[in-house]
Amino acid sequence: MKKGALNKIFHQIYKINLIFAFFLCFILLLYLLSFLTLHPKLGKTNSIIILDNNGHESIVLLNNKEGRYIELEKVSPYLPLALISIEDERFLSHKGIDLSRLIQSFFINLFSGDFKQGGSTLTQQLSKNLYFSSDKTILRKIKEAFMAMSIETHYDKNKIMEDYLNSLYFGDGIIGIYNASNYYFNKDPQILTLKESATLAALINAPNYYSPKNNLEALTKRSELVLKKMLNMNFINEQEYQDALNEEPTYYFLKNSIDNDAIKYYKDAVIDELRRLGLLNENYLGKGLIVETTLNNKISKDLSYLLSLFKKEDSNIEASVVILKPFSNEVISVLGGFSYERSPFNRAINAKRQIGSTIKPLIYYLGLLNGMNPLSEFTSAKETFYIKNIGMYEPKNFNDVYANKKINMIEAVATSDNIYAVKTTLFLGSKT
Predict the structure, then answer these.
(1) C-alpha–C-alpha distance, residues 227 and 370, integer Å
(2) CA 248 to chain centre
(3) Is 228 exposed, middle or buried (CB count within 10 Å of its CB: 0-12, 13-18, 19+)?
(4) pLDDT grade for 375, boundaries at 50, 70 and 90
(5) H or E segment to which residue 18 belongs
């Protein structure tokens, strides 16, 4: 071999070693900085618990997503082991990042010119779930690694696993192990079987693809892979492995506690009000917020059901409702549209529309205070009025239908008569 060729080879090796050394120095620097700077908060932080009018937990949000925080001791011991075996075999020994996996993925991405290889540990995944987006960029991976090492310096493995379980996405809008266990298997996480634990661990890699609704065969194969890895790592014995292989989980797909449009819209209204009051900041969310409301769950569920009877899938017509408790100003239900999933815009609160006939009870109330009574009469007929500073005004009833005779206030309310309302307003003009 010629000397020039050898020099070229040595030069390439030198460049690779230089890149590797720089990479190691960078990791060590991040590790040192993680001791000195960030102190990420885990546990029931960034949580909002919304209580209904009976003081019961109606909505629980973690990091602005529905989820119910649950302690590690209330989770089947099989589940953490299943997650470690399939997601991060060296979880118990690394300090936030797995150097061997990270270096491997680094060079694969470097030489492929792409950024598809992961290498993320459970702690990095937790970091992403809590603090970052899912964008596949080098900058995000660096930040993620920084945060993961910071988490590892301040918390033990049990606490990290606990928050990881509570932050996971399991598909179908399900966040956290408590919701996932109840949604898929109709049971609390503490009593999950080995096979059910392996199934949930298999789901999180690609929840939509592995959903038992969409691809049960693929989910079954991946759950069997999880079981095999658990066996190889001595997390379970041969008998447990065989028993789990023979078990066929029953899926329930139970709707979660907030699967009700009226409650969803109410939740958004509460969040908007907290934001307006300046309560959605670290000083309050860092400790967790408990919000007492006047939400009536039963009325909200009945309201959602009632409007669903009138919903037409091919129609753009919308509806919104606010229910108040008389004499107390309590908002007991809010429904901002026919379908929250189709449109979370809260028309009951945020839509800019004329108040229409909802003003009539207030007009009649003022009429009663100023000499009118429920039997006071005005003629309901098509008529043109002259309004000072406005000009000619010709109100119309619905479908242009009029009584064409005198009607009283009770009849005007029953038929939502616009002529009677206008005449009442004119009557009040000099009195209010």
Answers:
(1) 79
(2) 30
(3) middle
(4) very high
(5) helix 3-36
pLDDT exceeds 70 at position 144: yes
Cα separation of 188 and 175, whole Å? 14
Cβ 196 vs Cβ 188: under 8 Å: no
Q: What is the mean pLDDT of the chain?
A: 84
In tens, the pLDDT along 58-84 reads 777 766 566 778 899 999 999 999 999
- Tell me, letter by letter, the H, E, C secondary structure of 212-254: CCCCHHHHHHHHHHHHHHHHHCCCCCHHHHHHHHHCCCCCCCC
User: What CATH number labels 68-246?
Assistant: 1.10.3810.10
Q: What is the pLDDT of residue 352?
A: 82
- Show the tokens assigned to 249: 């989980």
Q: Identify the three-state secondary structure at position 66.
A: strand
Q: What is the pLDDT of residue 431?
A: 57
Measured CA to CA, the distance from residue 27 to residue 8 in angstroms comes to 29
Compute the distance between CA of residue 22 and CA of residue 244 in angstroms, rounded to an integer.
Answer: 46
Q: What is the pLDDT of residue 35?
A: 47
Six-digit token pair at 342?
Answer: 């189709």
- Segment 340-349 shows an average pLDDT of 87
Please report where in the chains the tokens 């995944």 appear, as a residue. Answer: 125
Query: Is 69:62 a contact under the CB 8 Å cutoff?
Result: yes
SS3 of 406, please?
strand
* Phi, psi angles (nearest 5°) of residue 265: -65, -35
CA angle 65, 290, 174 (to 5 degrees): 20
| C-alpha–C-alpha distance, residues 132 and 145, integer Å | 11
Tens of pLDDT, residue by residue over 102-115, are 666 555 555 555 54
pLDDT at 30: 64
* pLDDT value at residue 5: 60
Task: Please report where in the chains the tokens 């019961």 appear, as a residue.
Answer: 56
For strand 321-325 and strand 330-335, is the pairing parallel, antiparallel, or unpaired?
Answer: antiparallel
Tokens, residue 105: 């993925």
Pick from 169, 146, 157, 77: nearest CA to 122: 157
> How far is 203 from 219, CA to CA, in rounded Å?
7
The Cα–Cα gap between 240 and 307 comes to 50
Q: How far is Cα 415 from Cα 134, in angstroms, rounded to an integer?
A: 55
pTM to 2 decimal places: 0.63
**Cβ 198 vs Cβ 223: under 8 Å:** yes
